Amino acid sequence: MNTTAFVKEAKYEFLKKLRARSFSLSTLGFPLMFYILFGLLMNQSWGPIRMSTYLLATYGTFGVMGVCLFGFGVSLAVERELGWLELKQATPMPPAAYLVAKLVACLLFCLVLFALMLTLAVAFGHVQLSIIEVLQLAAILIAGAIPFGALGLVLGSVA
Questions:
Q1: What pLDDT score does 1 carry?
Q2: In the prediction, which pLDDT does 120 show?
Q3: Rounded distance, CA 1 to CA 8, Å?
Q4: Burial classification of residue 43, based on how many CB atoms lie within 10 Å of its CB (0-12 exposed, 13-18 middle, 19 or more buried)
Q5: CB burial string 115-139: b at 16+ within 10 A, e below
Q6: Per residue in 36-63, pLDDT tens?
Q7: How far apart are the C-alpha atoms of 106 and 119, rounded to whole Å?
Q8: Do 27 and 108 touch, CB atoms closer than 8 A?
Q9: Per-residue model confidence (pLDDT) at position 49
């Protein structure tokens, strides 16, 4: 199977999401803003656990949920309403490329969000995680993004 259509569709879907200010600013801005307000400015400790470390995972999850629900569900509903899905069906592109590209673009956006939050956490929150812990947290967030992408798909198809 030729993966060129999948890769190109995912690339342009990611660029479309990145260029849509209403999507990129809200899905990146709100989790980062909440992390700055609660994780960095009100940084307390619960025994050995710092609030900034705990809230990195918490607002990372919040951000992943928002990216997948809005990036997948809302964009699918809008594109269906505008007739883009009918146009995509008329192209020689494999039908699965559209959904796979949306999921890959959402996962890439989740990685961007996690990288920004991790940068804030390490630079200003004095979060100390090993490389293994960072990779584990990233893997858990990405694995958790897939069910929310599926939920967004269901909501976008019935909305």
A1: 59
A2: 94
A3: 14
A4: middle
A5: eebbebbeeebebeeeeeebeebbe
A6: 998 888 777 777 778 888 899 999 999 9
A7: 20
A8: no
A9: 77
Residues of the chain with pLDDT under 70: 1
* pTM, entire model: 0.89
Q: Tokens for 81?
A: 């309403």
Whole-angstrom distance, CA of residue 123 vs CA of residue 54: 16
Estimate to the nearest angstrom the gap between the alpha carbon of 154 and the chain centroid: 17
Determine the pLDDT at residue 92.
Answer: 82
For residue 7 the two structure tokens come to 């890769």
Q: How far from chain centre, in Å, is Cα 56?
A: 15
DSSP the chain: ---HHHHHHHHHHHHHHHH-HHHHHHHHHHHHHHIIIIIIIT--EETTEEHHHHHHHHHHHHHHHHHHIIIIIIHHHHHHHHTHHHHHHHSSS-HHHHHHHHHHHHHHHHHHHHHHHHHHHHHHS-----HHHHHHHHHHHHHHHHHHHHHHHHHHHH-
The contacts of residue 59 (CB under 8 Å, 6+ apart) are 31, 34, 35, 38, 39, 117
